Amino acid sequence: MSEALNGSRTTTGEVAGAWLDGGWKAPFGDAIMRTLATPKRMLVRGEGCRVWDVDGNEYLDFLAGIAVNALGHAHPALVDAVSAQVATLAHVSNYFSTPSQLELAQRLRVITGAGDRGRVLFGNSGAEANEAAFKLARLNKGPHGRKTRVLALHNAFHGRTMGSLALTGKPPMREAFEPLPGGVEHIDSTIEALEAAIDDRVAALFVEPIKGEAGVLDLPEGFLRRARELTEKHHALLIVDEIQTGVGRTGRWFAYQHADILPDAVTVAKGMAGGVPIGALVTFGWASDLFTQGQHGSTFGGNPLATAAGNAVLAEIERSDLVGNAARRGEELKQLIRSFDSPLIDDVRGHGLLIGIGLTDGEAHRLSDAALANGLIINAPNESSIRLAPPLIVGDAELAEFRERFGRALASL
Ligand SMILES: *Cc1c(COP(=O)(O)O)cnc(C)c1O
Predict the structure, then answer these.
(1) Are 140 and 232 in contact (CB under 8 A)?
(2) Is ligand 1 within 6 A of the CB of residue 241?
(3) How many CA atoms lie within 13 A of 115 on its CB side?
(4) Where are the coiled-coil regions (predicted)?
(5) How many Å apart are CA 1 and CA 67, to the nearest integer?
């Protein structure tokens, strides 16, 4: 233990001893649960769109902690807000409210479009937000008798806790943990499959509007609008999981806004507090009346530290029009990727700064490793897809740098 701690870093990111030259890998393998593969690098510091590893190498970060570091690393707006809040009041329990909690709830009501009838339930992660949404679905009894069915989409990812895993449409993740909470049926992501499946016994339809973990797969044109019509007709909740797509990532505040609809509930997490753990369920209209006192709760959920971080992030996104930046830079980045004209690149998917690159060969892991070796962090969610989710602050310099490093990685395969 003391041996391993010799490698601890100082706050300036300087590192001594045992962590250098891959020396961290054995302690990682020893102490961290086997659920995680050995990471590719040990990181010690970040600034803007860059991070540095323990050996002093610099990387352009086009993953942003999987769409989390919306403002990049060590953004002064987030650093100042969190520092000030932790020096004032970090946590109070749900017996008390705080100004930052109410401010963030109000901000979420505005940017989601839920407005005055919107309500917010705070948690600490995406999975927890979806757990809350699942409980909300159970409370939808409907006017026509008992609702027993919950619909979700094949290949959609909703989290790893038992309830959110029940919603997740990826059998290999689920099988070891069955039986999971019941009633969930997975359907194909087509309008026809939805029309065939939905009826008055459906309590809720869960939709991931762009399937991030599946490789950034867009829904078919018109799916969300049809889903809105059908769920309304059958008094089913339309619940949109915007944990990865939300908070400006796709070039709108939320991806459902591209389809010009309002859902009954939306789950938000990843990018909302720029790296401080947070999650939220936001309800709209009649869905805001389903939960009653005592039916859900969380010790940390909505605490002043996390909500202050959320306010800082949302305020900075507004101040610097990062939603607009995501839309513009996303288009530029897609153009840039297409301009490589590589036989390896099959298609370019996604919206704004959530971009998937479909590969002709199953070379995604090799390509992401080659990128890393060339100072670029990207991600291979599966063998045939590359995912890009850079900080929303990317500009000309970062795009130029990406072109160079990604080009070198492509050429090296
Ligand atoms: C990441 C993610 C989740 C789970 O969030 P956690 O914070 O990891 O629990 C759920 N849904 C989607 C769409 C996600 O991208």
Answers:
(1) no
(2) yes
(3) 6
(4) none
(5) 34
